[in-house]
Each structure stands twice: as C-alpha cells, then as structure tokens.
Amino acid sequence: MLLTDAIRRYWQGQGFARPALHVHLAPGELAWLEKRGGQPVAGTPGRLPLSTVDGHWQAALAALHVLLDEDDHKHRLPLAISIASRWCPVLMAPWSDALLREPQAGQYLQTQMAAQYGEQARGWHVTADDAAYGGPRLVCGIETALLQGLREAAREHGRRCLSIEPLLSAAWQHMDKADTQALALLEPGRLLLASSSRGRIHAIHMQPCSGTWLRELPQAWQRWTLRRPELARITTVAVLNMSSEAIAAEFLPAQDALFRMLDAPGLPGWQAGAARARQVAACA
C-alpha cells in the first residue's frame, strides 16, 4: 500500500505516464482529477462534499462508488487513491532487527502502531516503506474493512488499483526536494509536519489543529524544533493546504523558519487559496 521509491520510479516511467484517475478520500469530501502523462487534465478536477457527523470513512467509500458509477461510461481509468491522515495515520518506527524477517516485522510494526494509536490499531492493515538498514521506517495503518472496500470498489467497476496510500506519501511527491527539507500538511482538524534526510521522510509530527493556521503552524514548528534540535538547520518548510479553507491573509516577514505555500495542482483536494506562491510568515 505504501509506495516504495523503486515502485514510484517504475510507475513514473511506465504506469503514471499513462492516464489515471487520482482520488482523495477525506472526512469532509471526496476529490478527484484525471492525469495523463503525469500531468492533470484541465477540467477534470472535482469535489463532492460529505456532510457526515462522525466523519466515518463509509460515507467517502459510498461517494467513491457514486463517482465510479458516473465515470464508468468514459475511460475506466485505473485508480490512484490517497487517504486522509485521520483514516490512514502514519508514524516513524525506529529501526529494529525484527524488520529483517517475517512474521517478526509485521508484529513489530503492529506494536508500534498500537503504542501510538491504541489497541484498535492491532486490527489494522499495517505496512512500511523500504528504508535502508538501520534507518527509521515510515509506517502507515488502515482499517482492514476500508482497504477491502477500496479494492472491491475498483474491482466492481473493472478498474486497476495502482496505489492506495496515505496522503503524506502522495503529497511528498509534489515537493521540490532540492530546495525544501520539510513539509507542513494542513488537513481539516489536523496538522502534520514531516522532515527529510537524503530525500526520504525521516521524522514526522502530528497534532490536532483548530484551523487557525497562522498561529498554530509556527508554534507547532517551534515546539518540534525544541524537541528535535537538528531541525533548526531547515530554512524552508513547504506548506500544503489540504484543509477546507483557503489561506488568503497577508503574512508578516519570516523570522525563524520560512514557510512557503506549495502548489500541487496534480493532487486531488489541494486548496490553492489566494495565498498561492506567497511566503507564509512564522508569526508566533
């Protein structure tokens, strides 16, 4: 489920060069767009608001069936699915020799997930990336019923399912890793921070957020750097707005860390807002 770098290189050269329907499932909406040759097709992005009280994934899965029903008479494009952090949470697992073999690797990852997200995580489908020996692993978990539901939706509509992955790994591909070493991912009710080392996600931090991004983002970054002093070397943090609100305020000059709004027109659910391409101030 969580794409490895090797698989991504293959898909970028072989699979993702072909047409695909990219879909994002989130508590507040289902978003989609068509991509051809790795680029979004004009006029294809769409959103379907979901008015659910508890934000359960069943509403998003039902909306996906509606979308595929309406789209079946067209191209039956293969699917690339990203899932909001609420339904596909992530963590960084420290290295363990248990990762070298099964079933110890699976048991170790389940234990790491349960330690952070509770005992219910032991029933999730859990997987990790292919980090080098000795390095931390990016781990994601998803309810087995949701994963099965997504696969069945693709199968019922005669679609190939190219990928099912957390929003973080899908969003990471839209960063300019040569100039940016960290990502701030804004989602409804959540803020996820990620930093990289040698082009790979190396550390993450997730916290609830009320939506007052201009205050909470700089404060969250400052607290994280206090806990991880090595992050102080980072001078640019890409901000990807996947929340339901456009960020359109005028921002103060940067102080400690420089936040830049990240354009991601190839990611379904991306919120451009009026602050696109402006600098976001660390206005704590």
Task: Compile the SSE list and pairings.
Elements: H1 5-15, E1 20-26, E2 29-36, E3 39-40, E4 46-49, H2 57-71, E5 79-83, E6 90-93, H3 104-117, E7 124-128, E8 137-143, H4 144-156, E9 161-166, H5 167-172, E10 182-187, E11 190-197, E12 200-208, H6 213-227, E13 236-241, E14 258-261, E15 279-280
Parallel strand pairs: 1-5, 5-9, 10-13, 13-14
Antiparallel strand pairs: 1-2, 2-3, 2-4, 6-8, 7-8, 10-11, 11-12, 14-15
Helix pairs in contact: 2-4
Describe, in plain words, how this protein is organized in 3D.
This protein is an alpha/beta fold and 284 residues long. It is built from 6 helices and 15 strands. It has helices at 5-15, 57-71, 104-117, 144-156, 167-172, 213-227, and strands at residues 20-26, 29-36, 39-40, 46-49, 79-83, 90-93, 124-128, 137-143, 161-166, 182-187, 190-197, 200-208, 236-241, 258-261, 279-280. Strands 1, 2, 3, 4, 5 and 9 form a 6-stranded mixed β-sheet that branches. Strands 12-11-10-13-14-15 form a 6-stranded mixed β-sheet. Helix 2 (57-71) packs parallel to helix 4 (144-156). It is globular. The model is unreliable at 9-15, 248-256 and 273-284 (pLDDT under 50).
